[in-house]
Design goal:
The protein is α/β, with parallel strands linked by helices. It contains 15 helices and 13 strands.
């Protein structure tokens, strides 16, 4: 799309997500700022790193003024690790990937059948201890497919086998589940507004469920996927027996299949309400007032592709800016969308780092300097002077 589609401006809002595997959202904003200032020294810049509930959500909240709190929790393989949540006033931002994410697994090691969300429950409990009354619960990037059973166990739920013993951690052992008792859940949960922030709306089970769609990303074979899907279906059936018809309804609700089914655990056990992750995070981060101060918005993420159009951060940012009549350009490592698709999303033009460095490995390694060069181009093409 022609550069003229974006009006000339001197006030820029940088609202980009991370470039996964390369740069955090904060680093992306820093490099764009540096390039813009070289290309247009008088430009006025406001940075608001964004996230859609997955990796980087806590970092984005901290960059927006939340306080970072770190605690020791149980990692996805059972070993202790340090995880963080963000707090401002009585609002906490909890990112399940901080405690139960794929990034905590050793290189090349997966545990699709046994990885646990127990540490995420510990992280939620810490937020309750800190006085949180609203918890934005960002889910994504998980190493787990346990339906949130580990999370609920850490908060006081009991999941027992036919001998009355606790079932083992992970998704596969849920096949042995006989009794679920949620009466011991932390009573403070009933007085807290838990918002399930996710960029996916999959149900818990079936061909579009947690195991079938996302299990392979966590190392699950076809046999593992079948095992996990059956285990999650059994888990939901046991919870229906314990809690009634609502448990079955939650299993097919949007977001139930998010992050290995932890969405289901949040819906059925925490009374969470589902909202698209980027919408929640834009509210929490104060995007609307920042947008009012901008003439041009720069958004982006590592790959602009078909997934971007379905609830990812750049699409949410662009939609909000378009509603206010503010022009949007995007930056990315890789571009897989046609100009027409970008236009329909409200993005006037996208700049890909691979246009400057086609070699993927070198592009990822040098993403920062490349991003600064791209930002200089944006300054030349879209800013006064």
């Amino acid at each position: 799309m022609a550069d003229a589609a974006v009006s000339e401006t001197g006030r820029v809002l940088i609202a980009a997500d991370k470039f996964k595997g390369s740069l955090t959202a904060v680093q992306v904003a820093e490099h764009i700022s540096a390039g813009l200032r070289r290309g247009a020294p008088g430009v006025r810049i406001e940075s608001l790193p964004v996230a859609d509930g997955g990796d980087g959500t806590v970092d984005a909240a901290v960059a927006a003024g939340f306080e970072r709190h770190e605690i020791q929790v149980t990692g996805p393989l059972g070993a202790p690790l340090t995880a963080a949540y963000a707090l401002r006033g009585s609002t906490a931002v909890v990112e399940m990937a901080e405690a139960s994410g794929l990034r905590h697994l050793p290189e090349g090691i997966f545990a699709p059948l046994t990885a646990t969300t127990y540490g995420t429950g510990e992280l939620l409990r810490a937020a309750l201890d800190a006085g949180a009354r609203t918890i934005v619960f960002g889910v994504g990037g998980s190493a787990t497919t346990d339906g949130g059973a580990g999370m609920l166990a850490a908060l006081g739920a009991l999941f027992l086998d036919s001998d009355g013993d606790p079932v083992h951690s992970g998704g596969s052992p849920l096949r042995e589940l006989d009794t679920a008792d949620l009466t011991g859940l932390d009573p403070r949960i009933a007085d807290v507004d838990v918002i399930l922030a996710s960029d996916v709306d999959n149900p818990l089970t079936g061909p579009k469920g947690a195991a079938a769609v996302y299990g392979p990303q966590k190392g699950a074979s076809e046999e593992d996927v079948a095992t996990l899907d059956a285990a999650l279906a059994h888990y939901a059936a046991v919870l229906e027996k314990a809690l009634g018809r609502a448990a079955a309804e939650h299993a097919v609700a949007p977001g139930a299949g998010a992050a290995g089914g932890i969405g289901y655990g949040a819906l059925v056990g925490l009374g969470a309400r589902f909202r698209p992750g980027i919408e929640v995070m834009l509210d929490v981060l104060g995007f609307a007032p920042a947008l009012e101060r901008a003439d041009l918005v720069i958004t982006g993420e590592g790959s602009l592709d078909e997934q971007t159009l379905h609830g990812k951060a750049p699409a949410g940012v662009a939609a909000a800016a378009r509603a206010k009549g503010i022009g949007v350009v995007a930056v990315c490592g890789r571009l897989a969308l046609a100009p027409e698709e970008l236009g329909r999303a409200g993005i006037h033009r996208a700049y890909a780092l691979t246009e400057l460095e086609p070699d993927t490995a070198r592009c990822i390694a040098g993403a920062g300097p490349l991003l600064e060069r791209v930002a200089e181009s944006i300054a030349r093409n879209h800013l006064p002077g």
